[in-house]
Structure formats: C-alpha cells, structure tokens
Amino acid sequence: DPESIAVIDFGSTPTKTEVSRKISLTNKGRKSEQVIWGNEKKKAQPTTPGGPPIASAYANQIVEAIPKQANLDPGETKVFVIRATSNSTADVQEKLSCSCVELNKFVPIITPEIRAQFSDPLITISPRKLAFNWKYLDDAPPIPVPQVIPISLTNSSGFPLTFQLKTSTPFTVSQRGEISLQPGQQIHVNVSFDPHFKGDRLSTSIESRLLVQYIGRPEKDSILLSGQVLYPNLTLETQAIDFGPVCNGRDKKKIITMTNSSNVDVTYYWVFDRPERARPGAIPLSQEFDDLPNR
What we know:
The structure is a single chain. This protein has 295 residues and is an all-beta fold. It contains two helices and 20 strands. The chain has helices at 57-60, 285-288; strands spanning 7-14, 19-26, 33-46, 63-66, 69-72, 77-84, 90-102, 105-110, 113-119, 123-126, 129-135, 147-155, 161-166, 171-173, 179-181, 186-193, 204-214, 220-230, 234-236, 258-260. The strands form five sheets. Strands 1, 3, 5, 7, 8 and 9 form a six-stranded mixed sheet that branches. A hairpin with a 5-residue loop joins strand 17 (204-214) and strand 18. The longest helix has 4 residues, at 57-60. It starts with 6 loop residues before the first strand and ends in a 7-residue tail after the last helix.
C-alpha cells in the first residue's frame, strides 16, 4: 500500500547507527518490470547552531534503498530495505523515488519521504563540577570519614542509553556496573571522596574526572572532580641541624625558620622522635638539646 509508506519516520536515532525498514513490491502485471530506486530530493540540516551542513547524501549515503534496482517477473515479490545513517548530528528529510522503466522513461511507482533525527548520546549531569574540601579539626577522628556529594544524571537523548560511570582513586561512585536510562529518565548517584587516600597527615589537593562511558559507543562525557585535604602542617627550612664540635661545658645555637605552609592554624610543641635511652651516666636528650620557643 503506497499510502502506508508515504512517510517513513525513524524518529530519534543515534549517530553512526544504521536504521532500516523492509518494504515489498509485487509485480501484478503481465510482463517483467525493471525497478530502479533513486534519491529525489535531499535535505540534511545540522542540529548544532553554526555547524556546517552535512554533505550530500549521494556522497555519504544518508538514505538509500537496497538493492538499488531489480527485475520483477509477473507475480514476483521483491523485498527492498530502506536504510538511513549519519555520522554527524542532523535532522534528515528526503524522498526516495521508486520507478519502473517504460519506453526508456522512468515512471514513478512510489516516492516515500524518509525522516530521521540523528544525534549523539547525551547524559546531563548536575552539578557539572564537584569540589570536596576536608579540613582538620581538633575533634576530628583519627581516620577521616569519606565525604559524599549527590549528583543527578538525566538521559537527554531521544533514545535509550546504557552507560557506565568511571572514577579513579580517591573518588568513588555508589552506582557500579551498567546503567540503562530511557529518554528523559533520571537517577541519583553519590560520589565519594576519601581524604585519607594517601595515608599521611599532609595537606594535598587532587583533580580527576567522573567519566560517562557509553556502551557500544565511542562518545564520552565527564565532569570535573576536585578534592582538597587541609592538615596543620609546618615547613622547616632544613631537615638536619649539624652543631659540629662543641666543647665541654659550652653550648651552641642554631637558628632556623619555621613556616605554617597550610591553610589551617597550627598549635605545636617540640618532642624528640626517638626514646631516651637510659645509660649509666648518660645525659638525657632533653638536657643535651633545647628548643626555643618550645611551643
């Protein structure tokens, strides 16, 4: 029925994906007919503002019929495949012409209009940037507790999408494995940051990305992740102090500069990092060395 295929609308379709529909033609005449398909008029407009128009469908074969021609004997039925594809985002609208040859002239049989909206997959993530900030407090637990920020992911494409979320240490996501969303569907996912990922008590900052990896697709989306860890840290201008020879009964003094290199107030006091050994007649370290100010 020519009216049933007057318009073939494939709807929203991913780029770099082929969509097709089969139609059948039957020769109800008394003689053999040669059927030839051609592109009558082509329209392919970019959906990205300011983007270049897609090249002619004759070059990119955006829309075509397979096979392009065939001979049908009386009573014979032939199946043709109407195929559409695009490597770029575009709204495609064009007509195919199916004609038979009569007296060396093309006589149209059907002229279906082919429509398709090709677009790249898109997951909309909100917010687009996550900034974690952990700051040391006097009552903080010995091992910092991971921080959590919720995000929403929405399928903004006109077709279903399946994807995975990828992160790297010290960032993790609560949703693992493949995620499938219908058009317009939204889910919520927690992103966590571990301030104790280095295992020390030094201030640091790190940046990474939360990656959306589409299954079976080359496209990827991502958002920026940043984490800052603030400990009360001091920086000494030297890591070793050599007093050299010191005469008995005399003392020697060295002056060093100490800087608060962190963004946190520092309250400090001096201790010796190795235990004093009790030796007969030995002078305790606390008497051999003195530090001013002590705190």
